[in-house]
Specification:
Elements lengths: L17 E4 L2 E4 L10 H5 L3 E2 L2 E6 L2 E5 L1 H14 L8 H15 L4 E9 L13 E8 L8 H4 L1 E9 L16 H13 L4 E5 L5 E4 L3 E6 L2 E5 L9 H12 L3 E5 L3 H6 L2 E6 L3 E8 L2 E2 L7 H14 L10 E3 L1
């Protein structure tokens, strides 16, 4: 069965967009760097993925402060001086969205070593900070509603003895790319990586949950996962709905026997998984718990629940 076509959002002539680069809003085409830029050669950039949604009060950014805090923490881990405070970066995100008059969008803050000197060392090299905002639809296209098919990858998730897994760094995602390519080549929509000790870790760019006997389970820190902002939000929503949420080690066979499995992430939002390695999960359709959390999440990001207004920053 061929993998579903992943849609990355509505097409857009990005040449018309304004982006934020080193403190200034410039045309997309004018935000250029040398082809030999260090971060392109060696994967030494760091980044964030953030989403904004259309609400009755205007465009609202989901958990902006938490995402910027994670960017700053990633920079600390890699000893990168961004040169901007949290409040300055938050303002830069909002200014970029305003400049493009976007009602909803995906936002990509990116910090990188802006030098074309050849050599692995980044010590003392100049750092640039970029923020782009683009229109964006459902990451998995129809899969968001119908569910997707996943393959457990033969590649293992990197761990903190190799690279800092709590950092959202560009180079880490080579691990994700090779796993996703393997899954797509085999006819699946996405990969699921195991930790070095064989426990379920995460997708190539998503956190993972399973539901069994009305208990929601997600891998804990021992699987060397990137702690997702959306992951934490969904866990909080589940507890608000009086559901039991467990963070613990997860054996891969638990996915096969689960009642439901789903991904969470900025791009993926809440995406049902209906098949793993050819094994039908539950009924083979998105389950009731996944649907409930998916609907609650949609209500909140669209500004329809005042109790969670603190999660939204109005542009």
């Amino acid at each position: 069965m061929p993998a579903a076509k992943i849609k990355k959002g509505a097409s857009q002539d990005r040449r018309k967009l304004k982006v934020w680069l080193d403190g200034k809003l410039v045309n997309y085409n004018d935000a250029t760097v040398p082809i030999l830029t260090h971060s392109l050669q060696y994967g030494s950039g760091i980044f964030e993925g953030i989403r904004a949604y259309e609400t009755s009060k205007g465009t609202a950014v989901f958990r902006l402060e938490e995402h910027i805090e994670r960017l700053i923490n990633t920079a600390k881990i890699y000893e990168m001086d961004l040169g901007y405070t949290k409040s300055q970066l938050i303002k830069a995100v909002l200014d970029t969205i305003k400049a493009n008059k976007l009602k909803s969008c995906y936002i990509r803050p990116f910090a990188f070593y802006n030098t074309d000197l050849v050599g692995v060392s980044s010590f003392g090299k100049p750092i640039s900070v970029f923020i782009g905002a683009i229109p964006f639809g459902a990451y998995f296209g129809e899969g968001k509603e119908k569910g997707i098919r996943c393959k457990i990858s033969s590649w293992r998730r990197i761990n903190s003895e190799i690279l800092p897994v709590k950092a959202k760094a560009s180079g880490n995602y080579l691990n994700s790319i090779i796993a996703n390519t393997e899954a797509r080549r085999a006819g699946y929509d996405e990969a699921i990586l195991l930790s070095i000790n064989g426990m379920v870790a995460e997708g190539s760019g998503e956190n993972i949950f399973l539901v069994k006997d009305n208990v929601i389970v997600t891998p804990d820190d021992s699987a060397d996962i990137l702690i997702g902002v959306t992951r934490n939000s969904i866990a909080e929503l589940a507890e608000e709905l009086d559901m039991i949420v467990q963070e613990r080690e997860v054996h891969k066979e638990e996915l096969y026997t689960a009642d439901e499995v789903f991904f969470t992430g900025t791009a993926a939002e809440v995406t049902p998984i209906v098949n793993v390695d050819g094994v039908k999960i539950g009924s083979g359709k998105p389950g009731p718990v996944t649907r409930l959390l998916q609907n609650r999440f949609t209500e909140i990001v669209n500004g329809k629940d005042k109790r969670f207004g603190k999660w939204l920053t109005i542009v």
